[in-house]
Amino acid sequence: MNIVMLEPIGISEEKINQLALALTNSGHKLEYYESRPEEKEELVSRARDADILIISNLPLEREVLVELDSLKMISAAFTGVDHIDMEYCRENDITVCNSSGYANQAVAELVIGFMVAINRDMVKGNRAVRNGKTGENLIGQELKGNKLGIIGTGAIGTNVAKLARAFGCKLLAYSRSRSKEALELGVEYVSFETLLKESDMITIHLPLVEETENLIGENEFAMMKNSCIVINAARGPIIDSQALASALKNGEVAGAGVDVFEMEPPIPEDHPLLQAPNLLATPHVGFATREAFQKRAEIVFANIEHWLAGDPQNVMN
User: Which pTM was predicted?
Assistant: First the structure.
């Protein structure tokens, strides 16, 4: 099989070769690139003869996939696969596997970082020091005793609950299904409306599907406390960005931590959230730790080995 890694996945060439050793020793060919393809033509040129593709969050749209006659399997170094035309893959028996679980700890820690940084005005404090000012009026708030509303108690949401519990937060949750582990941590499951109304902080941990797009908009922000902090390290379109920007400007919520937008960075300067006050934004780096990159690379190559052995894992279609 011809295996092509279309873009870097955050580990060294040495580690790639180590992880691919079982495959190459079995006669499979691995080709990898150290940069992302910038144009469709370059992408197709790289992928044209591939039986198996490895990508991170590089979009694979139908107009590209139709030109890849040999393609049989995609191993995505990512949790979500909404950047891949899954309908085309299903229609053409192309197996798509993700790397679920690799960044559970990384994303959970970023969420806690948002919570601490926003509650303690760390960005304003840093700016004050650099501008020769004092800490006057920089009165923060402790996490202990605050109600954290967790929307979605899968692996990441439950990890957030573990960490927040250590800070002394009270834990509320709304989720399609109840997690035994979350319940053991003391999480109280409530209705969506109750979570919005009672939480001091809200963090979202859902996949982007039709039902979750714009899940939180103008009406939902109106239900929240004016002192509430909203964090999104899941998928950008789950929150209506214009509605969040308006809620921040109008004081309907006190602050927001956002790692994800409707598009991948760079984010346009005129994006509504970049014009909003009390926003702490990061360029989709929740998953980006050395440890997480190593874990996902291991999963990526294990996915290929399992698929070749007729025992596929992490299949998304």
Answer: 0.89
